[in-house]
Amino acid sequence: MCGIVGFTGSRQAAPILLQGLKRLEYRGYDSAGIAVFNETDRQTALVKSKGRLNRLMEKTDNGTSVPGCCGIGHTRWATHGEPSETNAHPHMSDDGNVVGVHNGIIENYQELRDKLTRHDYRFHSQTDTEIVIKLVDYYYKKYGLGPVDAINRTMVRVRGSYALALMFKDYPGEIWVARKDSPIILGVGNGENYVASDVPAILSYTHTVYYIENLEMARLTTDKITFYNLDGDEISKEPSEIEWDVESAEKGGFEHFMLKEIHEQPKAVRDTLMRYLVSGDEEKKQISLQEIGLTDEFLQGLDRIYIVACGSAYHVGVIGKYVLEDLTDIPVDVDLASEFRYRNPKFAKNSLVIVISQSGETADTLAALRLSKEKGIPVLGIVNVIGSSIARESDYCLYTYAGPEISVATTKAYSSQLIAIYLLAVRAAFVRGQIGESACSELIGSLCELPDKIERTLQDKERIQWFASKYASAKDVFFIGRGIDYGISLEGSLKLKEISYIHSEAYAAGELKHGTISLIEEGTLVVGLLTQPNLYEKTISNLVEVGSRGGYLMGVTPYGNYSIEDTADFTVYIPKTDPHFATSLAIVPLQLMAYYLSVARGLDVDKPRNLAKSVTVE
Ligand code: G6P
Questions:
Q1: What global pTM score does this model have?
Q2: Tens of pLDDT along 433-445?
Q3: Ligand 1: which atom is nearest the Cα of residue 409?
Q4: Residues near ligand 1 with C-beta < 6 Å?
């Protein structure tokens, strides 16, 4: 939520800031702004605009009208204060002494505002950010000990989360950064350095980054980055190399990132699988999780698993529960992170908490991780962004290899998270003696076939596009299924509503008769998921029930289940696979349907209203 960029070097900063913000727009897009220090007149220019970044680009002639080689920028997802030019960042102290951008939420902003008001500070926006910037200014002037001291005092005084990038009038050409619970990375260039909320913003300039921990700060000059702890002491850090390539953060000929990312799923799934498969005897593949610390003994000793996540990652958890409980003898609980953290969970002995997160920065998921660790429960993070907070704070980290995901609606990250869960389930089932060697090999064989089968599923896209154009004016859509198919329904429904704004709900098919069926009218679209052989007949019956009340029925089922055509009005067939892994195929037509419906309705697929990809506030 909210994207921050910063640049200091000998090139013009504004175009670089704008390009970085463009790549971070998925983090928020209700207003944007930049502040650039101009070495010629020694002034800092502040330009902001309400709305999408394009407006700011127009206003600044793509940055060319804002000269200077050091600057900071921000794209906003409003928390405190409506989206407006006044509330847009950067914010500046009234005398121009400090200017800054912020991502996060300051919880004690009212108390700080009162304090500063008593010291004659005045506020022009409704943001908590303006308060933090002015608090830094206050300490800077009160103690006169420079930025490290002023920022440290501010960090001690504020409650909440923040990633801050600041510039001080007295320190031209320098950017100061501080963080607690909101992401920020520092990029290292040749005679230039960068600040960004996330890797894609700086990928075209550098692959070398520093991560900064909570309650640390950094000072960036053109040729040096210095780190400090909360006591103001200098600390040393090692840089990391990012493996992602620049192309992975480009649209590459696709009209939208979402469509590109849907098509990247075979690769994301293959790359994730390959990281954790090794060749065993007779060239048979085996799953290896030892490298990430999940030894066979550890898996054998587990008595309970808790999966905690938000959004689509939570839906992976729902599928994970079905798969893990069916393949292994381990009971599994699944929780929304925002609920888990406040429900005082009781952990069984020998438990493992699994947190799933694409960004590795989701505030509630991170809080759930910390809560579990406080209670002494080991945490496995399934994370896509290397070096993110969840990746670093987890005891074990199973990275997914989806590459950068830009579209707000997740597709390829979701698909690679599923793979992580499958790998864990199959390995745990094997080492706990729930499945034998040949069953294990068969399951691994099925996993290895998934990328090609996803590819084949994608080939049906024209039919789905046609179907979506027919239903572009739908008002309500229901997704139903049982077991794993219910889990798929949840994700299919979320995809649809988040990017097409069509109201949709997912229901466990057997629950329909307990209320929801009263919503079915003539022509209501009902999508039935039927990938589980043992539940096929039951879900067909539910489809018949809604069909006889006027519902228009779409079915998603493996090839071979042709009897569905007696019931469904429109069927999408997916390749056959082991039913435990069917989600990986069945989700693809649902993603495509959501995508094409959004396009048919003329909406901004990659940046749906009110949403942000990375939810770093509660
Ligand atoms: C947002 C995104 C979703 C994502 C969820 C959790 O709502 O739009 O696509 O599933 O956050 O994010 P995470 O980064 O933790 O997977």
A1: 0.81
A2: 999 999 999 999 9
A3: 9
A4: 310-313, 357-359, 362, 365, 408-410, 611, 613-615
